[in-house]
Automatic annotation (TrEMBL):
InterPro entries (alphabetical): G_TrmE, GTP-bd, GTP-bd_TrmE_N, GTPase_MnmE, MnmE_dom2, MnmE_helical, P-loop_NTPase, Small_GTP-bd
Binding site for (6S)-5-formyl-5,6,7,8-tetrahydrofolate: R23, E81, R121, K447
Record organism: Stappia sediminis
Name of the featured protein: tRNA modification GTPase MnmE
Subunit structure: Homodimer. Heterotetramer of two MnmE and two MnmG subunits.
A cellular-component GO term for this protein: cytoplasm
The keyword Ligase is annotated on this UniProt entry: no
Encoding gene per record: mnmE
Localization (cell): Cytoplasm
Length: 447
């Protein structure tokens, strides 16, 4: 990745489309704009221009052209945008025209955002918020991502880091200039009370953010039970489309199937798994192993027991396993059972995917479960394991700093330095080169 190159990519959706947006960023953007349009461009104004090939002068398309001079652009560099017609041939012709310029090349995944980060236009939490906004599937995910992209999380962490830098400055002033009249004789009452308060704030923030992380990835709900219990039929009914193959043959689901749902604006990932039984085949045994692994990772398990089978497999063994999440028992295929058998036992729900009996009630209960277990706070919260790891490192260093009054002041000041450094790593202020490729690799080409 060479930052001196000028890069280009399709920044809009897949083709064909009504409009395609080609973004160009780098030092040759202005020259490219002049040669493609053969006309001057005013900054940040939309111009309707004929786009011509730089070698043949052939008209390739009529497009809206917008010119963003540095540094007032997304990347902080000169940026040119071509809003052309979204046919594959049109875009291919424009890409061919761009390829004739020296030191101009297609962009790599996330390279536009990486350049915005390098130019100081975004910090890492804002970059991650942008990635989450692009990937958001529900209203609550959109809101949270927008708050993070707007710098709400950075503002909190930068404020805490500034408090720690001030505390360190007071301590170092006492160490270096203890004989000076304008330096307090002891900073303990001032600094350590503030450090304790900050540690409490971070603990509260961490506890709230564990739930916010769940909002970002969605509630994981696993459908489990014996073969032919109706798991795949229920997944199709909840997803309102054919996701899984449904047959009378037992054991047709061999792998894990996932579908993302939007329940009242909340994200839910529904997982269909292989039927649990003593399997002989190698493929089915692997499917059952994956099913059990997914159940251990789930937030909620829906255990299906067909209503027409008196001795169907129960989840008793599952409930006895360690670290098992919540389990709801569903009496599936309620349309095949006698009226006496469809009476819900305590803690069970009867559903039928054929008559849709009980489905709306189940969807309502699942929506309430998601709302009860997902943070809907308007405050920016940490949403990634990376944030939580650095916050926990910061908190540990803070607790070490005020854990013992007998600890030398120099060592306590070092603990504060480590705490501030951990906060700086979240927003990318210091030493984050090793993680940049991973973070920017989440973006698609063109962003």
């Amino acid at each position: 990745m060479t930052t001196s190159d000028t890069i280009y990519a399709l920044s809009s959706g897949s083709l064909p489309a009504g409009v395609a947006i080609i973004r160009i960023s780098g030092p040759r953007s202005a020259e490219i704009g002049r040669r493609l349009t053969d006309a001057p461009l005013q900054p940040r104004l939309a111009h309707l221009r004929s786009i011509r090939h730089p070698n043949t002068a052939e008209v390739l398309d009529d497009a809206l052209v917008i010119w963003f001079p540095a540094p007032r652009s997304f990347t902080g560099e000169d940026v040119l945008e071509l809003h052309c017609h979204g046919g594959r041939a049109v875009v291919a012709a424009l890409f061919d025209a761009l390829s004739v310029f020296e030191n101009v090349r297609p962009a790599e995944a996330g390279e536009f955002t990486r350049r915005a980060f390098d130019a100081g236009r975004l910090d890492l939490t804002e970059v991650e918020g942008l990635a989450d906004l692009i990937a958001s599937e529900t209203e609550t995910q959109r809101r949270q991502a927008l708050r993070q992209m707007g710098g709400g999380l950075s503002e909190i962490y930068d404020g805490w880091r500034s408090d720690l830098l001030r505390a360190r400055a007071l301590i170092e002033a006492e160490l270096d200039f203890a004989d000076e009249d304008d330096v307090p004789g002891s900073v303990s009452d001032v600094v350590w009370a503030d450090v304790c308060t900050l540690a409490s704030l971070i603990e509260i923030h961490l506890s709230q953010s564990r739930v916010a992380e769940r909002l970002r990835r969605g509630i994981q709900i696993v459908l489990a039970g014996a073969p032919n219990a109706g798991k795949s039929s229920l997944m199709n009914a909840l997803a309102r489309r054919d996701v899984a193959i449904v047959t009378e043959e037992a054991g047709t689901t061999r792998d894990v199937l996932e579908v993302h749902l939007d329940l009242h604006g909340l994200p839910v990932t529904l997982v269909d798994t292989a039927g649990i039984r003593e399997a002989e085949g190698l493929v089915e045994r692997e499917g059952i192993r994956r099913a059990r692994e997914k159940m251990r990772q789930a937030d909620l398990i829906l255990w299906l027991m067909p209503s027409d089978e008196m001795h169907s497999a129960s989840p008793d063994d599952l409930l006895n396993e360690p670290d098992v999440p919540a389990v709801w028992v569903l009496r599936s295929k309620s349309d095949l059972a006698s009226p006496a058998m469809t009476q819900d036992e305590p803690g069970t729900v009867s559903v039928s995917t054929r008559t849709h009996n009980g489905l709306e009630g189940l969807i309502g209960r699942l929506g309430k479960y998601a709302a009860d277990h997902i943070a809907l706070s308007e405050d920016p919260l940490a949403t990634r394991e990376r944030h939580r790891t650095h916050l926990e490192d910061c908190l540990s260093a803070l607790k070490r700093s005020f854990d013992s009054d007998s600890k030398p002041l120099e060592l306590r000041a070092e603990d504060l330095r480590l705490a501030a450094e951990s906060l700086g790593r979240i927003s990318g202020r210091i030493d984050v080169e090793d993680m940049l490729d991973v973070i920017f690799g989440e973006f698609c080409i063109g962003k």
